[in-house]
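PROTEIN DATA CARD
Card holder: Response regulator
Chain length: 148
Origin: Flavobacterium circumlabens
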Amino acid sequence: TLPMGRAHLQEEEIIQDFRISDDIEQYTAQLETGEAVEPEDIDDFVVNSEKPTILIVEDHKVLRNFMKNLLKKDYNIIVADNGKTALEKALHHVPNLIISDVIMPEMVGTELCSKIKENLKTSHIPVILLTSRSSLVYKFEGLESGAD
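Structure generated from the sequence above:
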């Protein structure tokens, strides 16, 4: 299970000076993990049965790699760069959690979420939708698609 709150975090892991913005460049310092940059292979996936699996769906390569590097220590990570590929991978691997961007090519995140929730094989998987949009309309759209 994913821990809730912040009690499990070290003080240095908590970023308090975040900015609300659509400009990814404002987050460059947080995106630089200090680790060697690994070449990304979208199809690269090795299962460690002791760890839960997360499917990360993000078309922005830097952000996708940031999330992957942040979570790979504790979770098996599958990545996809669009909703169509993500749906195929979700049906094949049946991850424990899906974290998806909303605005993507080929299939948007809300459509992906609806298809995940409509399929008996994947309907139990929690889906977290990420978006820079702040309007309540977009929040309702995500909830209506079945996002958790």
